[in-house]
TrEMBL record, chain A:
It comes from Pelosinus propionicus DSM 13327. InterPro entries: THDP-binding, Transketo_C/PFOR_II, Transketolase-like_Pyr-bd, Transketolase_C. GO terms for molecular function: oxidoreductase activity. The keyword Membrane does not apply. This is Pyruvate dehydrogenase E1 component beta subunit. Residues 4-178 form the Transketolase-like pyrimidine-binding domain.
TrEMBL record, chain B:
The keyword Oxidoreductase applies. Keywords: Oxidoreductase, Pyruvate, Thiamine pyrophosphate. InterPro entries: DH_E1, PDH_E1_Alpha_Subunit, THDP-binding. Residues 15-310 form the Dehydrogenase E1 component domain. One of its GO terms (molecular function) is pyruvate dehydrogenase (acetyl-transferring) activity. PANTHER family: PYRUVATE DEHYDROGENASE E1 COMPONENT SUBUNIT ALPHA, PYRUVATE DEHYDROGENASE E1 COMPONENT, ALPHA SUBUNIT BACTERIAL AND ORGANELLAR. GO terms for biological process: pyruvate decarboxylation to acetyl-CoA. Coiled coil: none annotated. This is Pyruvate dehydrogenase E1 component alpha subunit. Gene3D superfamilies: 3.40.50.970. Its cofactor is thiamine diphosphate.
Amino acid sequence: MKKMTYAEAIRDGMRVEMQRDANVYIAGEDVGKFGGCFGVTAGLFDEFPGRVLDTPISETAIVGHAVGAAAAGLRPVVEIMFIDFMGVCMDELFNQAAKMRYMFGGKAKVPMVVRTPCGGGMTASAQHSQCIEAWFTHIPGIKTIMPSTPADAKGLMAAAIRDDNPVMYIEHKQLLAMSGEVPEGEYVIPLGKADIKRAGSDVTIVAWSWMVHKALAAAEQLAKEGINAEVVDLRTLVPLDKECILQSVAKTNRLVVVNEAVRTSGFAGEIAAIVVEEGFDLLDAPIVRVTALDIPVPFNAKLEAVYLPNETKIIAAVKSLF
Amino acid sequence: MSDVTKEQLLDFYKTMLTIRKFEDKAAELFAAGRLPGFVHLYSGEEAVATGVCASLTNKDYITSTHRGHGHLIAKGGQVDKMMAELFAKVTGYCKGRGGSMHIADVDLGILGANGIVGAGQPIAVGAAFANQYLKNDAVSVCFFGDAASNRGTFHEALNLASVWKLPVIFVCENNRFGISMNQKDHMNIVDVSQRAISYGIPGVTIDGNDVAAVYETAKDAISRARKGEGPSLIECKTWRHYGHFQGDAGLYKDVQEQEEWLKKDPILKLEEKLKVLNFAKDTELKEIRQQIQGQIDAAVAFAENSPEPSTEDVLADVYAP
């Protein structure tokens, strides 16, 4: 184990895979000498000559070229500087990458990773702060990953690159500098496995990405008040580890889902629907969602704080179930 | 034109006729209500796909369009599996999952027809990048229409291809219409090839109904790309005989213009050439026509007699294992 930041762990995940497989390459805006807008690819340009490519500011061509390169045998890992820019290249992702294999009768494979940072709390306002993971989970053919710790970031990056499907690898800007123990060398976490980040017996809190840490902080507070919360970190939204969620609810009989995205049509609603459909009898209380407000992300810090989910809102949601 | 041999011209003739007969049959089947979905026919544009693909091998990639049957046949697609796909049968290229607008065969280097106008452009660039990265001497060709050169994908793809000096040839089939909209109303230039200037790459406009001219021009561009000299844009002026899709009567076309273009039919032009050069007699051409008609009829029989996909497999192949 080695102590590294979440950003370093993502980089280490890419580095190890690039060492293993000469067909893995990186492309994106300013990912080369500059090292990426958030420094995630720093140093790789020199370490892997000709395999870390700067592109023009052309999100359509970045994702679109990756589709062609992947179908032609490479394993592109492309960076979209902010997840908010995905609107520029959605056709390439949802009509091309995601559907190619099915439409072509199973003959093609499109092993590509789109790395992109999401999330608020940085006064970056409405076009640089969003959590739009539900866009991608709504598209059959794509896998969606949202790691919450440095170790998960590394292990899930390896799995994403080795996967033969298009993968949205969504980083969180708030987590990039977070430090933690990370296994050295090859380290792969299979996709579709949730992780119980805190065991508990009284209520299940399902979260992912930055919100895992909000949920853990809330759980510590709740423990002081005699409520023992279990925190389930989904890690991958598609494929989803339904069993882990249902098993946890079977134990606790109560569910709160925390999602940094806006409320309407968010992935929290999907979790709630699944638990109602498949685990209604397990529930002793209604399911409660803690989400952002249904508004564009405001710039002003006080307004943004009102917009975002936080520990206080999670604690209140949990208490409402007892 | 001088170095196009008799054998090559006769091969071109067979390919172009195969496309024409395939499309005429598709039109007939669609009108009779025997084909599901939409079909967009390539009749009138056969010289472009044929002339370009003549210099490609299975290692080279193409991206096609909604009007893709001609590209597939020219790139080596089998008409029986294509027809079966039009009939949505399990023996089709996509097992009945794609249809006319999504026929593909990665083994033949066909990265798919495409239901989204302009979507093939960045995909072709990516395939060309893979060729450059793997140093395999292969190229990719992107077919698209005049109207697709108005998409943002066109700009981003050509710009990236030019700065990365990728082995890709952009082939614009200028059939003068974006669905119903005349070129003069959808862009303010006459020649799409002028757009190459913005990317610092060669751009030429040629007669897209002259298969020998298409062949010669594409061969040079493909050869440049294979040598690492970067992308090119070739605009082929042509005309689609049918409407945008089957069911569109094409009433927006000027009647006189349509008649003039029908006289410039690429297959008629090639037949005349073959006869003038004394490469083939009427009787031989007739024999070829009959032979190809037989293949098309057999393809229809194959398609009609093929089973539909099993509903039990509906979930298969969404994800690669």
